[in-house]
Design goal:
The complex is a heterodimer of chains A (277) and B (280). Chain A has 277 residues and is α/β, with parallel strands linked by helices. Chain A contains 11 helices and 10 strands. In chain A, strands 6-7-8-3-9-10 form a 6-stranded mixed β-sheet, sandwiched between helices. In chain A, α3 packs across α4, α3 packs parallel to α5 and α4 runs antiparallel to α5. The model of chain A has no long low-confidence stretch (mean pLDDT 91). Chain B has 280 residues and is of the alpha/beta class. Chain B has 2 domains: 231 residues, 3-Layer(aba) Sandwich (Rossmann fold), CATH 3.40.50.300; 37 residues, no CATH class. Helices cover 42% and strands 22% of the residues of chain B. Chain B has a 6-stranded mixed β-sheet with strand order 6-7-8-3-9-10, sandwiched between helices. In chain B, α5 crosses α6. Classes of the chains: A alpha/beta (277), B alpha/beta (280). At the A-B interface, α6, α10 and α11 of A face α8, α12 and α13 of B.
């Protein structure tokens, strides 16, 4: 689906992506993590062809991004910018979504059909003015416009920044549903709890290099790798690492609670309220 | 001391109150976190504290905000700004100079700080936020985290008693966010500055703030010591706020019948709790 071979990218003189290679298969849910300036956003822009590698190759579904027009790539790969206001440009929700569709489709009835579907899916008021929506709603609209094109790959640059918790969960649950339908998701994300809960694989960047690539839970236990990338693991993982032996498989609150309960000395166990039928 | 008494505010052309009957007292030297869903009124509250409301945003205004007894309704925001410094949500809109040094000098000169004091205030502010090396750099070439520090240095140079910050870490990565909150803690503890910060990252507030205000639909629905407020997990969840996972863990253990003396709000505390349960 996505193949990078020895990809390098240099802005002016400073190289921001250094010799990166990886393969992402269909239906994967991958997070890219790293500190500010590690090259995450650059890498995400290399994936959709906005940027072309200075050396090495990026291939999306067999298409070399250097040899393929960005507009052709855009039919297969959807990109959500960090700030929705950089992509919203029309005065109604319906026009905003239609605008994107018109760039890739000719058939008016098909455009209308896709538009109706996506508006129903998100529960938007089609006549609403995008600029009067809250930040979370604008983020949803930007996501809707991207999804309307029915891309096979979705690249998201910090989809939850600036959102409150419930907005964040709404957006992430939509992305999870899309992934369950088979869409490949690659997401740059700063929130390690979100990464733990949603991504199955993690790529760790530090100073432009890929320093780790693996299953999410495995990566979060690699303290040395995370330290190099200036990342703190999610709270429960931090706790599990400190508690050491016996907590290697503990990542969620429920896993930690059950594990601790099993080891708690009897004097701390009170009477438990039991649910009656 | 800040006293907000019965503050209700509706923006002109709006149909609902952005703030509804706010009562709040903030003592000198407090470190207060404000959290709530978007649209809860957090930014409006900050604007009412620095006088931007009502002086730049007209609307229906009831009640009062007093800073050391001075009603913000009666004085201009610029008269207040030596006492109350604000770091806004959108840092770029706050920057007006192209060079770091000029950005800080701008405030100092505008407030007619005596010439012989300017250099020490300028270098002191850069020192306090840890960026003396950026003094002559072009702001446009700085990272988000560095710009944040310049914005705060420009405010600190004016030596306000009260520092207001509206989502200062929204563009920062977790490591930079942590470093930034350590800086706020330092300003609070070493300089006695009152810190009032709107922040979505509950983990940061749990670790650094001493008091927490939760807002929803223009109202304050929780107000108290951080630990007391975090204990009300169910109420927080209803307000769209996610507790730190160690808090959720403690609450879950109690549900499962484990007897705890209280919740833990940081990983350090959770570790102590876990070790006690297993080995004591």
């Amino acid at each position: 689906m996505i193949d990078l071979k020895n990809v390098c990218f240099t802005y002016q003189k400073e190289s921001t992506v250094k010799d990166i290679s990886f393969h992402i298969g269909k239906g994967e849910f991958v997070a890219i993590i790293g500190s500010n300036g590690a090259g995450k956003t650059t890498l995400s822009k290399l994936l959709n062809g906005i940027l072309k590698p200075c050396s090495g190759t990026v291939s999306i579904m067999g298409m070399d991004t250097k040899k393929t027009k960005t507009s052709i790539l855009a039919r297969h790969i959807g990109f959500l910018f960090q700030n929705p206001d950089r992509q919203i440009c029309k005065n109604t929700v319906a026009d905003e979504i239609r605008f994107g569709l018109e760039q890739i489709l000719k058939d008016k009835s098909l455009i209308q059909q896709r538009l109706d579907n996506v508006i129903a899916y998100f529960g938007f008021d089609p006549a609403a003015n995008p600029f009067r929506l809250s930040r979370g709603e604008r983020q949803k609209l930007a996501l809707a416009s991207v999804i309307a094109a029915e891309p096979e790959v979705l690249v998201l640059d910090e989809p939850t920044t600036g959102l409150d918790y419930s907005e964040c969960m709404q957006i992430m649950n939509i992305i999870r549903q899309l992934n369950e339908k088979g869409i490949t998701v690659v997401m740059v994300c700063h929130d390690m709890e979100v990464v733990l809960d949603f991504a199955r694989r993690v790529l760790v960047l530090s100073e432009g290099r890929l320093i780790a690539d693996g299953e999410t839970r495995e990566i979060f236990r690699q303290e040395e790798v995370l330290r190099r990338a200036s990342i703190l693991p999610p709270q429960i993982t931090q706790l599990a690492l400190r508690l050491g032996e016996g907590f290697e498989q503990v990542f969620t609150v429920e896993e930690m609670a059950r594990n601790l309960l099993a080891r708690t000395r009897p004097q701390y166990i009170g009477t438990v309220r039991r649910e009656t039928a | 001391m800040i006293t907000i008494d019965g503050l209700t505010f509706q923006y002109k052309n709006s149909t609902q109150n952005a703030l509804q009957d706010i009562h709040l007292t903030i003592e000198d030297g407090d470190f207060l976190g404000i959290i709530g869903e978007s649209g809860a009124g957090k930014t409006t509250l900050i604007r009412a504290l620095n006088g931007i409301i009502p002086h730049h945003f007209p609307g229906d205004y009831y009640g009062s905000v007093k800073i050391d007894g001075q009603d913000t309704f009666d004085v201009t925001p610029s008269a207040l700004s030596l006492k109350v410094g604000t770091v806004f949500q959108d840092i770029d809109s706050q920057m007006i100079s192209s060079v770091v040094e000029d950005e800080i000098l701008f405030g100092l000169e505008n407030f007619s700080i005596p010439r012989e004091e300017i250099e020490s205030r300028l270098s002191g502010a850069l020192e306090a936020v840890g960026i003396p090396q950026l003094r002559y750099r072009n702001i446009a070439h700085l990272s988000g985290g560095q710009k944040q520090k310049v914005a705060i240095a420009a405010i600190i140079a004016l030596r306000p008693k009260i520092l207001l910050l509206d989502e200062p870490t929204s563009e920062l990565d977790p490591q930079s966010s942590l470093v930034f909150f350590r800086l706020l803690k330092e300003l609070n503890e070493s300089y006695g500055m009152t810190v009032i910060v709107v922040e979505q990252k509950i983990m940061l507030l749990s670790e650094f703030a001493r008091k927490l205000v939760v807002m929803k639909n223009g109202r304050i629905i929780q107000n108290g010591a951080v630990r007391e407020v975090l204990q009300k997990t169910a109420e927080l969840r209803n307000s769209g706020i996610n507790c730190p996972r160690v808090v959720t863990l403690a609450n879950r253990l109690m549900e499962l019948g484990v007897q705890l003396e209280g919740i833990c709000v940081t990983v350090d505390e959770a570790e102590t709790m876990a070790r006690r349960l297993m080995y004591d």
